[in-house]
Amino acid sequence: MSSEWLSVAEIFGEDVFNDAVMQERLPKKVYKKLKQTIEEGKELDLETADVIAHEMKEWAIEKGATHYTHWFQPLTGVTAEKHDSFISAPLPSGKVLMSFSGKELIKGEPDASSFPSGGLRATFEARGYTAWDCTSPAFVRKDAAGAILCIPTAFCSYTGEALDEKTPLLRSMEAINKESIRLLRLFGNTTSKKVTPSVGPEQEYFLVDAKKFLQRKDLIYTGRTLFGAMPPKGQELDDHYFGTIRQRVASYMKDVNEELWKLGVAAKTQHNEVAPAQHELAPIYAEANIAVDHNQIIMKTLKKVACEHGLKCLLHEKPFAGVNGSGKHNNWSITTDDGINMLDPGKTPHENVQFLLVLACILKAVDVHADLLRESAADPGNDHRLGANEAPPAIISIFLGEQLQDVVEQLLSTGEATHSLNGGKLQTGVTTLPDLTKDATDRNRTSPFAFTGNKFEFRMVGSRDSIAGSNVVLNTIVAEAFAEACDVLEKADDFDTAVHSLIKEYLTDHQRIIFNGNGYSDEWVAEAEKRGLPNIKSMVEAIPALTTDKAVELFGKFGVFTKAELESRAEIKYENYAKAINIEAKAMIDIAAKQIIPAVVKYTKELADTVLAVKEAGADASVQAEMLADISGLLTETKAALKKLEAVTEEAAGKEEGKVQSEFYHFSVVPAMEGLRTPVDELEMIVDKEVWPMPSYGDLLFEV
Ligand code: ADP
Ligand code: MG
């Protein structure tokens, strides 16, 4: 018997106010009402809320909680929280009571003026409200601040506009629910009541030693290295991927898992990733809304536990130039309340007409709205990954795999699919090993949007970003495609014929989005251009997708975003981009001027002294002199590049905020940053390691 296993089962969810706790602690009537709210969206009356709040507080206090917080995801990229203690005004006796009302549970009013609203709120009505999202369970989180009851909430303005990631996500989940049910009914399904997107995000991250981290101002201020020459050994051996996990990291992972399990996060898989010091954690998939919240918890936990182990967890998309970056693979499927996965092709997909229609709709949705999907992964950090050599390309395409590709080809050529390729047996050639049943499809690691058996995997998402944005887009664009298909099919006289020709029509019109080859190759870039697929290379070029007529119509039709909300989001993204690059540029200027140039100047003095001393001693000082000349040359280049960067950064600050300013940052400041980095990295290669003012890539990546 494994006691380890038992203890995991015991601790799992122990800090979550989950269904079991609610059933146990709430009066039957109250529990039933709450379930109706969760499952059917019925409004919760204040009296019921009071009872729930009271029980929740009692439970939290037993767990040691002193405070509660409305936990929400504003558009700044991090989870926001303001802690309120449970204490009431002191009584005449001088004592206090611990209280928590239904009103406090349901609604909060954080000072909204300091969160970005993209102009949605004029300052005179700076109010913003947080509203309890009872579909995601409350939990008690323990850290240096003590234990805090965290209540997942949505964040809206006084007039109801979304100021957060969750509100549009919930709206998009309603949209895909409604349209999926319509589609299922057409195929004779009368039993499924609800359809929810299931999401399983794989999270990549780097771990570095905290002491070394603290010697790098670039990591401290920006989360990535702004300078740094490649170590003699990079990742060319790929020996880290799935390699043995080092003990220090293993003990870190153990603690991470334990904390996550207590919080009800089903942490499942962990392994080393391709780059040295890079790792991955994947939970078991959950309903989209919960998956999004859990991913926020995962990121926070990865960082917190790292500190406890003398490590720092880097979630930046590209902490090290020339080394693999980090992303999230957003695994997505749609599932009914009675357990049908609408993306499951079954053994013989060619016969599964419903699946083929769903697939055709998704191809159409992704083709029509490729720009929106691309935008949903746009992030200043992801600009270093997408389109670069080792990451998913910035071009959206779909990988179907051999089996589905074959079915699609049959449909396209003859209008009829008569058979499905199947995987067959994988012969190991070793008699003591069993022959395994092969998947019908091999893996493809270079596609940004890949079909993987019974789900799609969107691989572009940035490692630091909330996965909410991408799922909002996925849910909504697929809802639209379903709705358009249903509009046609509900009116059809002969359903079978109509569905057949609709599938063929969609496949014919949107086949250009399918690509099963190597997405990292140059040939694909050329081919994609021929096919007319957008290749949106950067965040600032991606943002306009949010406010096209097409996007306004799509999101408006399904009540996910109003035009004003889309415009505000675009504005906030421009602002976030400009701020991020401004901080990076300023950090570079600071590091170059105060650390690198002074260190190199000192070193040239040493070298010059050496040259003189060696000459005086009558020996050959030509090597030293040559080094001195090389270093001095690079120092001159560095100084000039620094001046240039200072000038453009200053110019950027004076630009009109929004699109104009962020474009200037992207097209002028970023190249000037690269201009400064080049000579500095060359200097690092030839200057004595002892005098270099910060730990090198080698120190950071290979000495965890
Ligand atoms: P793969 O090996 O194909 O990447 P894994 O089994 O490792 O798949 O799962 C990767 C992630 O996808 C995990 O978070 C997993 O829970 C999730 N996942 C698995 N099946 C589904 C599904 N039907 N819908 C959404 N996510 C899923
Ligand atoms: Mg992976």
TrEMBL record:
GO MF annotations in UniProt: glutamine synthetase activity
GO biological process: glutamine biosynthetic process
Stored InterPro entries: Gln-synt_C, Gln_synt_N, Gln_synth/guanido_kin_cat_dom, Gln_synth_cat_dom, Gln_synth_gly_rich_site, GS_Type-3, GSIII_N
Domain (GS catalytic) ranges: 165-596
Chain ranges of the GS beta-grasp domain: 66-160
Family (UniProt): Belongs to the glutamine synthetase family.
PANTHER family: GLUTAMINE SYNTHETASE, TYPE-3 GLUTAMINE SYNTHETASE
Record-given protein name: Glutamine synthetase type III
Record organism: Coprococcus comes
Lineage: Bacteria, Bacillati, Bacillota, Clostridia, Lachnospirales
